[in-house]
Amino acid sequence: MLPPTPISSPPVAMKQLHFNLNQVTQYIIYVCVLIGVCSGIHNWHRAQTVTALDTTERLTIAACAIIALIIIARLAELFLPLHSIPEDKLQWGSRHHGARVVLSPTTPYQIVTFPALGFLLGHICYCGALFLVLSLGIRILLAAPWKRTLPTIIKNGRRELLYSSLWSIQDPDLVHAALFSSTGRWTQNKPTGNKIILTLRRFRRYTLLHYTTILTIVCTYILSTVSPSATFSLFLAPFSLLSYSISILTQYGSSKDVIRAILTVGAASLIFSFYLSIITPYPFLLVFPCTLCSSLVCSYLRTRRKPVQSFTILDSGFGVTFPYEVVKYYLQGLSLPLLVSVALWLTLPNLSF
Q1: Cβ contacts of 126 within 8 Å, gap of 6 or more
Q2: pTM for the whole thing?
Q3: Looking only at Cα atoms, what is the longest distance across the chain?
Q4: pLDDT tens profile 245-255
Q5: Residue 284 CB: number of other CB atoms within 10 A?
Q6: Distance CA 35, CA 285 (A)
């Protein structure tokens, strides 16, 4: 009996490159959509700009843009690392075929998204080409390719799997606990029963909340130099979500949680309204009521959310289907902030202060 003929392995190029026509088509469509969005925002910015910025304003906007790019790149590396591979793919895919592909499936999308984002932010201070290259460099540097080791790549794959699976869990308490425990900065502190000290410690440990707060502040300032009305309208809903996240840190299972949550949301709305009244021409008495009401309603409705227990698929009639309960889950509590944002978008440009 003749011995079995050994099967020759495919070439190295065929091992490392496994093109999928569907993925390539999606990537091309994404690039085309991204170019269209950037072109539309670029034209809108040219229509909104009425006065030239001086050197100080341009340097301030450039500094805020760099801070925003660093934070966005840090969050992207936290949730969607460039170099990652799941353990099952390493064992049954790459190792089996002898390939060493360690790039995440989202890496090609990030490679084109960050230059586009940097171009839009840099275009405000007339440095679009510089920020286009700078944003891509920041994203690659924060990925630390010189520290790429197999344990780090496997760890990134586990983290990416954890965060990507959170989108399929429609349970607010479970998702928040997972985010807090996985992104928190744990330190040893003396035990105390003071709720104020415990809340401050929670806020200090919740690094994800630090990033989103700073990102909201710098992006608000950048957009205020282009369109003050758009600043107030676009950031009302994100700030309402941020207030909801801050109010969760005051929950301890007691009867006074509601009072602490209201005071926390009110203090955050007061600070944010005062900041908006400084960088925009709109008075504090107009900004504060809209911000406070939207934040309180959003926080109250989102704390009453329940896990999604049914899954109804609706057909839009245009070839797109979506689960109604899941969409309602993610948009719950944002009805009033979105309505107020649309009303402010339509009325503020016609008002004079």
Answers
A1: 53, 58
A2: 0.80
A3: 96
A4: 777 777 766 66
A5: 13
A6: 40
